[in-house]
């Protein structure tokens, strides 16, 4: 099963694995949305779109349609 940014829950962190470069806006790439970088879901807008993220220290909002195209791997937190 493919895990994407839109499936993250508030506060969850993940590592960006893959995406289709033709679908992702260049602006996101410039802001650090690249494979290997960490992403955390900070907040979800009241109607569920957009998603507010922290990607390697850059805070940005992306649409659900874009979030569905970015594959991630969850970071397991052990206590």
TrEMBL record:
PANTHER family: FE(2+) TRANSPORT PROTEIN A. This is Ferrous iron transporter FeoA-like domain-containing protein. It comes from Flavobacterium frigoris (strain PS1). GO terms for molecular function: transition metal ion binding. It comes from the Bacteria. The keyword Signal does not apply. Residues 3-74 form the Ferrous iron transporter FeoA-like domain. SUPFAM superfamilies: C-terminal domain of transcriptional repressors. InterPro entries: Fe-transptr_FeoA-like, FeoA, FeoA_core_dom, Transcriptional_repressor_C. SMART domains: FeoA (SM00899). Signal peptide: none annotated. Keywords: Iron. The keyword Transmembrane does not apply.
């Amino acid at each position: 099963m493919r895990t994407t940014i839109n499936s993250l829950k508030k506060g969850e962190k993940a590592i960006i694995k893959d995406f289709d470069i033709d679908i992702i806006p260049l602006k996101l790439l410039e802001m650090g949305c690249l494979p290997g970088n960490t992403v955390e879901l900070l907040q979800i807008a009241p109607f569920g779109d957009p998603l507010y993220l922290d990607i390697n220290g850059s805070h940005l909002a992306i649409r659900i349609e874009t979030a569905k195209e970015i594959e991630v791997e969850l970071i397991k937190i052990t206590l």
